[in-house]
Design the sequence.
């Protein structure tokens, strides 16, 4: 999620289907023409990676014999893209990737007139672990020492990583609350992307950062960042750091479910057609490589079950943002 109000930028990449795969859908004719997949964030980010992974699986693994075009429309926590996407009512050939907490945070924080409840839920696909990091020259060797400093001088610890009101800031709010620090006391610097967060960390302008492992792995492996903890059920291969669960802090993290939405106005049959297509994508070897490459774990939550998760997390996000003094 990128909350800073930016001009919408559309970057389209056409990926041509080159293999013939069995079509999904009750009638066996979906998809019969090109698909458009919107990533409501910047190129290179998590949403973009997910959209292009789906598009690649459609063609390279023979899931569908159609073209798939990925379009980036970043800005305002995904709500600029969301507003554009909502105009495609009734069109099952328009899809949008997102993740629950990030986009819900953008909706609440920006008072978006379009909500996810107005769209058609296709499926939740995966969850991506986050890492709490500091620069290699940082004096903080573990999360306890960092949180001790946070408790002693809340404004003295400057956090960065993701947009205002995003899952990173929400997790930091939970960690602060566990140490008796009010959410409003957190000194959090929102950014429009991983590169900006990295620059703040490496320059010393930020004390600590929180972002997805996929966004940070290159700098972690290069030794530029030290990982204090990861938000995952198990330790992550190649990263020498405890989980928040090991540290007794798992309940303070906000877990976001990434998935796919379709426009409003689809019939139940059309919804099932799209679900069937995405189900084939997630079972393909191409998609499994995307999961592995980004340290994502599968969490298949199709159809209305995904809609239920979104409704429940809408309440959670609204409550947390209220504690942060946002979204009012």
Sequence:
């Amino acid at each position: 999620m990128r909350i800073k109000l930016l001009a919408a930028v559309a970057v389209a990449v056409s990926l041509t289907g080159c293999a013939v795969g069995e079509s999904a859908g009750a009638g066996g004719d979906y998809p019969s023409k090109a698909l458009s997949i919107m990533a409501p964030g910047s190129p290179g980010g998590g949403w973009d990676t997910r959209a292009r992974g789906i598009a690649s699986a459609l063609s390279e693994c023979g899931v569908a014999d159609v073209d798939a075009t990925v379009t980036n429309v970043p800005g305002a926590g995904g709500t600029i893209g969301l507003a554009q996407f909502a105009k495609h009512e009734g069109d099952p050939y328009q899809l949008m990737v997102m993740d629950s907490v990030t986009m819900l945070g953008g909706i609440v924080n920006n008072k978006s007139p379009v909500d996810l409840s107005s769209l058609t839920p296709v499926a939740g696909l995966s969850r991506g672990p986050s890492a709490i990091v500091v620069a290699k020259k940082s004096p903080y060797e573990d999360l306890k020492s960092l949180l001790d400093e946070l408790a002693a001088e809340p404004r003295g610890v400057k956090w960065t990583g993701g947009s205002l009101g995003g899952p990173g800031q929400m997790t930091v709010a939970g960690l602060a609350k566990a140490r008796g620090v009010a959410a409003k006391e957190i000194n959090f610097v929102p950014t429009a992307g991983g590169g900006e967060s990295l620059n703040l960390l490496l320059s010393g302008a930020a004390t600590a950062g929180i972002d997805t492992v996929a966004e940070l792995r290159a700098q972690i492996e290069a030794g530029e960042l030290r990982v204090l903890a990861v938000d995952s059920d198990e330790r992550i291969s190649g990263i020498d750091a405890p989980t928040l669960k090991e540290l007794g802090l798992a309940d303070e993290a906000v877990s976001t479910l990434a998935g796919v939405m379709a426009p409003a106005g689809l019939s139940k049959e059309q919804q099932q057609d799209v679900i069937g297509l995405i189900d084939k994508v997630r079972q393909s070897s191409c998609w499994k490589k995307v999961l592995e490459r980004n340290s994502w774990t599968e969490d298949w939550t199709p159809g209305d079950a995904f809609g239920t998760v979104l409704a429940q997390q809408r309440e959670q996000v609204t409550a947390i943002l209220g504690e942060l003094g946002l979204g009012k």
User: Anything to note?
Assistant: The longest strand covers residues 120-127. The chain is about 35% helix and 20% strand. The first helix runs from residue 46 to 60.
